[in-house]
Design a protein that fits this description.
Elements (H helix, E strand, L loop, with lengths): L3 E6 L28 E2 L17 H20 L8 H14 L8 E3 L1 H11 L2 E4 L2 E6 L2 E7 L4 H5 L6 E5 L2 E2 L5 H8 L6 E8 L2 E8 L1 E4 L3 E5 L5 E6 L6 H14 L4 E5 L8 H11 L5 E7 L4 E5 L11 E5 L6 H11 L4 E4 L7 E7 L5 E10 L15 E2 L19 H7 L1 H11 L12
Parallel strand pairs: 13-14, 14-17, 17-18, 18-21
Antiparallel strand pairs: 1-2, 1-19, 3-20, 4-11, 5-6, 7-8, 7-9, 9-10, 12-13, 15-16, 15-20, 19-20
Protein name: S41 family peptidase
GO cellular component, one term: outer membrane-bounded periplasmic space
InterPro entries: ClpP/crotonase-like_dom_sf (IPR029045), PDZ (IPR001478), PDZ_6 (IPR041489), PDZ_sf (IPR036034), Peptidase_S41A (IPR004447), Tail-specific_protease (IPR005151)
Length: 435
C-alpha cells in the first residue's frame, strides 16, 4: 500500500431518499459530488507500508479464502459476461472497509470518484451550473449559477429534475442525479424538469464552472448581515473574509455565519475561518490519535474579526469542517451556535492512493472540540436549539431580496433566532428556541 496523502478531516456522505425531509443537503458543488472531506494543512505520514511480504498468517489465510471464492465464481457463475474483475476488486475493498463500522467516513473511491473529489476541492468543476437539493423525495434545483449554461438556458429555482439524457432519475437521490449530469468539458447533456406540472427539456453544454461558496445580504429591516458559506474548498476562506469585510464596510452591527447544509471540506480552510474570529493561540480543535494521545491544534491566524458580534447557524447537514468551526467558536465563547445538532463527522482521514487511481480514505484519528467533546456520531449541540418545521424554509441570502423582516422571520425561524440574538431582545424571548 502506498503512503497516505495529507490528512482529510471528516467527509461527506451519500444521501438516501427520505433522509431529512424537505430541506435536504444543498449541493454547494453545483452538481458535483462532495465525496470527501478536507485536505488538512501539512503532511501526516504513518510511516508504514504493508506489502504482501508483511502479511501475517491470518491475512494469508484470508487471501486464500478470497482467492478460492473468486475461482468458484469465475468458473461456475451462469452469466459469465457479467463478471468484471475491476468491479469485483472494488466490491471486495468496499466490503472490507464497511466491516470497520466507520460508516460515512472511512471509504473507497473509484478512480472516477477520486478525480471528481480532487476537482471539487479545487473550487472549480465541469458541469452545467446548478445547485440541487432534496425536497420531499424530489431532486430540485435550488439555484442556477449566475452566467452558467443552466441560467442562460432558462433553468429556474424550484424546477424538479425528472430525466437526464432521456433516462428517468426520479428514483435517484441528489448524489445520483449529480453523477448523471457530470461529464467531460464540451460535451452535452439533456435535462428534463417539471415546472408547474409542465415538462421542459434543456440541452446544455458542460463547461468549467467557478463554484461560488459565499453569498451575503442584509436581513431586511435590520443591520445584521446574513452570510451563507457553502463549502470549505480551495481559497474559500479568502472569499468569506472578503464578504465579512464588505459587510462591516456597510456598517453591519453583527454577522450570521450560516453553515447549514455545508458538508465540509479542507481542514486548512476551516483553520483559517475559525482563526478569523479567534485570537492567535486559541484552540480550534483537539486531535486524538488511535493510541489515545491528544494534541491541541491552535489558531495561527491574527484574528482579523475577534470582536465582531457573531452567531453561527448549523443543522443536521453541517458536517466535517463546519463542525470544526462551530465547535471552536462555541467552546471559545466567541459565538452563539443556533439551529439543530450537526451531522457528527469527527474523523480525521488519511488518503491512500492506489496504483490504478482509486483511493482509500481511512480514519486514523478523531477530532474533538476545544473543551474535549467528541463529535463523531453525536455532532455539535447548538447553544440554542431551533427546529425547522414542515412549512418552514431555510433561506439563502439570495432569497431575501424583496422580502420584509416579518416575512423572513416567519419563513425561517432559525435565521430569525440568530438575528434576535444579535439584536438583543429586551424581554429575553426568542420565538421557538429550545434551551
Amino acid at each position: 500500500m502506498n503512503k497516505p496523502d495529507p490528512p482529510l478531516s471528516g467527509g461527506s456522505r451519500r444521501r438516501r431518499r427520505g433522509g431529512s425531509g424537505r430541506f435536504g443537503s444543498v449541493f454547494a458543488g453545483l452538481v458535483a459530488v462532495f465525496v470527501l472531506g478536507a485536505v488538512g494543512a501539512g503532511g501526516y505520514w504513518l510511516g508504514y507500508s504493508q506489502g504482501p511480504a508483511s502479511l501475517d498468517g491470518r491475512d494469508e489465510e484470508s487471501l486464500r479464502v478470497y482467492a478460492e471464492a473468486l475461482d468458484v465464481v469465475r468458473e461456475n457463475y451462469v452469466d459469465q459476461d457479467s463478471i468484471d474483475p475491476d468491479r469485483q476488486t472494488y466490491a471486495a475493498i468496499e466490503g472490507m472497509l464497511d466491516s470497520l463500522g466507520d460508516e460515512g467516513h472511512t471509504r473507497f473511491l473509484t478512480p472516477e470518484e477520486q478525480d471528481a473529489s480532487q476537482e471539487q476541492l479545487s473550487g472549480r468543476y465541469v458541469g452545467v451550473g446548478i445547485q440541487i437539493e432534496e425536497r420531499e423525495g424530489e431532486v430540485v434545483v435550488s439555484a442556477p449559477v449566475e452566467g452558467s449554461p443552466a441560467e442562460s438556458a432558462g433553468i429556474e429555482s424550484g424546477d424538479v429534475i425528472v430525466e437526464v439524457d432521456g433516462e428517468d432519475v426520479r428514483d435517484l437521490d441528489a448524489t445520483g442525479v449529480s453523477e448523471r449530469v457530470r461529464g467531460p468539458e464540451g460535451s452535452e447533456v439533456s435535462i428534463t424538469v417539471l415546472r408547474d406540472s409542465k415538462r421542459l427539456t434543456f440541452d446544455l453544454e458542460r463547461l468549467e464552472i467557478d463554484s461560488p461558496v459565499v453569498y451575503r445580504a442584509l436581513v431586511p429591516g435590520t443591520d445584521v448581515s446574513h452570510i451563507r458559506y457553502t463549502a470549505f474548498n480551495g481559497g474559500s476562506a479568502d472569499a468569506l473574509r472578503e464578504a465579512v469585510r464588505e459587510s462591516l464596510a456597510e456598517n453591519s452591527s453583527g454577522l450570521v455565519l450560516d453553515l447549514r447544509g455545508n458538508p465540509g471540506g479542507r481542514v486548512d480552510q476551516a483553520m483559517e475561518v475559525a482563526g478569523m474570529f479567534l485570537n492567535r493561540g486559541e484552540v480550534v480543535y483537539v486531535r486524538r490519535e488511535a493510541g489515545g494521545e491528544r494534541e491541541p491544534v491552535e489558531s495561527r491566524e491574527r484574528g482579523e474579526f475577534p470582536e465582531v458580534p457573531l452567531v453561527v447557524l448549523v443543522d443536521g447537514e453541517s458536517a466535517s469542517s463546519s463542525e470544526i468551526v462551530a465547535g471552536a467558536l462555541r467552546d471559545n465563547g466567541r459565538a452563539t451556535v443556533v439551529g439543530e445538532t450537526t451531522f457528527g463527522t469527527g474523523t480525521v482521514l488519511s488518503e491512500y492512493g492506489l496504483e490504478d487511481g482509486s483511493a482509500i480514505l481511512l480514519g486514523v484519528a478523531e477530532w474533538l472540540t476545544p473543551e474535549g467533546d467528541f463529535i463523531r456520531q453525536s455532532g455539535i449541540e447548538p447553544d440554542v436549539k431551533v427546529p425547522l418545521e414542515e412549512d418552514d424554509e431555510r433561506l439563502d441570502p439570495r432569497d431575501l431580496e424583496g422580502m420584509t423582516r416579518s416575512e423572513v422571520f416567519e419563513a425561517d425561524p432559525q435565521l430569525a433566532e440568530a438575528v434576535r440574538r444579535l439584536e438583543g431582545p429586551e424581554d429575553g424571548s426568542s420565538g421557538r428556541a429550545e434551551g
